[in-house]
Q: What sequence folds into this?
């Protein structure tokens, strides 16, 4: 992605502390459209922010879905791989330029993380950005 | 720009201009309120809903809602399993289906929506339960200037700790 944002449009880091997110947001300027998977809850400010750009924003509160899945499924049927397949039901043709994982990665152990990232990676365009 | 009360206080008070007195006209009925059909909470429709007026849905609709030139409001008690096409779509209830608004789509705090949204303007209030895609590709990129004040660049704000988590590992 090309970093072409003029100085005055640089995103402020006063609100969030992620340098990676700053770099990401400053790079999504330009004529092209982006497809974005937001794994957090739907927030007004975020939708408003992305509405400035030409993009396809898919909002999927993954942690909430996962909690609901855990509550609904009997323990012996609980398989993380099954859950991730059911909860992220995108087609193989789907491609995301950006996946915003926020802090949900903090709530999974390494094995779960591996399964989740493996699941997500099938829809990532080459050179994806994970922001957390 | 963040609204400051001080600034508001400094603004001169505007008084609506009084129209000059008119010769008394014959009394007539007040103009009718904008027509809007109401689908009440006890109504259940299976099939296609179309027409030529705005509609407010508090009942259940399963199938398709198509009022391309009009406003469609799904009230808090509305339960919809249908694709919706309208000029302006406001959701306060539950919708399972794709929404296509030629002007705008607004998801209120009480809404629960599963589906994709397509509209030039999409507004989503915090607290609304939305899962799906929002197509924002119809307008030219960089059409709007990026915000320069810190209030406007709060988003994306989800780096802040989520309030709904207990801190437990899943």
A:
């Amino acid at each position: 992605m090309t970093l072409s944002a003029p100085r005055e449009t640089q995103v402020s880091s006063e609100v969030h502390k992620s340098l990676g997110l700053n770099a990401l947001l400053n790079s999504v300027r330009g004529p092209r459209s982006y497809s974005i998977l937001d794994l957090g809850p739907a927030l007004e400010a975020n939708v408003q922010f992305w509405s400035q750009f030409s993009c396809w924003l898919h909002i999927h509160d993954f942690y909430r879905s996962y909690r609901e899945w855990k509550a609904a499924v009997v323990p012996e049927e609980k398989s993380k791989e099954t859950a991730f397949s059911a909860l992220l039901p995108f087609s193989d043709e789907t491609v995301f330029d950006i996946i915003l994982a926020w802090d949900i990665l903090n709530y999974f152990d390494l094995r779960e993380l591996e399964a989740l990232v493996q699941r997500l990676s099938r829809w990532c365009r080459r050179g994806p950005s994970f922001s957390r | 720009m963040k609204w400051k009360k001080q600034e508001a206080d400094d603004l001169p008070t505007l008084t609506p201009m009084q129209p000059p007195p008119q010769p008394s006209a014959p009394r007539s009925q007040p103009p009718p309120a904008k027509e809007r059909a109401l689908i009440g909470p006890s109504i259940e429709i299976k099939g296609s809903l179309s027409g030529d007026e705005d509609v407010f849905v508090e009942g259940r609709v399963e199938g398709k809602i198509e009022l391309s030139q009009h406003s469609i409001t799904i009230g808090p008690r509305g339960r919809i399993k249908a694709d919706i096409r309208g000029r302006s779509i406001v959701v306060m209830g539950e919708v399972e289906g794709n929404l296509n608004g030629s002007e705008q789509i607004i998801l209120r705090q009480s809404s629960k929506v599963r589906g994709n949204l397509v509209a030039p303007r999409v507004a989503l209030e915090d607290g609304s339960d939305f899962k799906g895609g929002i197509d924002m590709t119809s307008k030219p990129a960089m059409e709007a200037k990026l915000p320069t004040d810190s209030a406007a660049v709060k988003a994306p704000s989800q780096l802040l700790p989520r309030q709904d988590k207990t801190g437990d590992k899943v």
Q: What stands out?
A: The longest helix of chain B spans residues 5-10. Residues 120 and 137 of chain B are 9 Å apart (CA to CA). Chain B touches chain A at residues 107, 121-126, 128-137, 139-146, 148, 150, 153-162, 164-165, 168-170 (CB under 8 Å). The helical segments of chain B are 5-10.
